[in-house]
């Protein structure tokens, strides 16, 4: 939960708004995955990215080239991908958005399809709703008895 306390909805949405006409849901997924998996080395390889997203390497290459043209990442020979400053900032926001929604769904008791549901929600949520979900998650973290009472209530249904 530490990460979500650093969440800055307004800035993240400002970045997305700047690129709104340019970024599709698929592009957001690529940026999030690149950001998520480039911490250790500062880059990710195209073949690793395609495996993580379950897409063919040529499809990943095509998308990476599009994101490169938007100035969000650098794509070098031998399939090495690294984020630019703007790409890193958007990637961080996208991962935080994902984590906030996923935690919320888990707090609601969604277990089996939490990842799928998160993916379906994250590209369509407003800044205000995401902000409120984040605040609610923080409230639950500070008041674990509410979660316990809710889980007991769920079991009784």
Write the layout of secondary structure elements.
Blueprint: H1 2-5, H2 9-18, H3 25-37, E1 44-45, H4 46-53, H5 57-69, E2 73-76, E3 80-83, H6 85-108, H7 114-122, H8 127-142, H9 144-156
Antiparallel strand pairs: 1-3, 2-3
Describe this structure in words.
The chain is mostly helical and 157 residues long. It has helices spanning 2-5, 9-18, 25-37, 46-53, 57-69, 85-108, 114-122, 127-142, 144-156; strands at residues 44-45, 73-76, 80-83. Helix 3 (25-37) packs across helix 6 (85-108), helix 4 (46-53) crosses helix 5 and helix 6 packs across helix 7 (114-122). It starts with a helix and ends with a helix.
Number of strands: 3
Adjacency order of strands in the biggest sheet = 1-3-2
The helix-strand sequence is HHHEHHEEHHHH
- What does the main sheet amount to? 3 strands, antiparallel
Strand content: 5-15%
Distance between the termini: 28 Å
Indicate the overall shape.
elongated
Question: Helix/strand/pairing class, anyone?
Answer: mainly alpha
What count of helical segments does DSSP give?
9
CATH homology group? Winged helix-like DNA-binding domain superfamily/Winged helix DNA-binding domain
Question: What is the CATH first-level class name?
Answer: Mainly Alpha
CATH architecture: Orthogonal Bundle
Model regions low in confidence, pLDDT < 50 over at least 5 residues: 1-5
- Average residue pLDDT: 87
Radius of gyration based on Cα positions: 17 Å
Question: Would you give the CATH topology?
Answer: Arc Repressor Mutant, subunit A
Total individual domains? 1
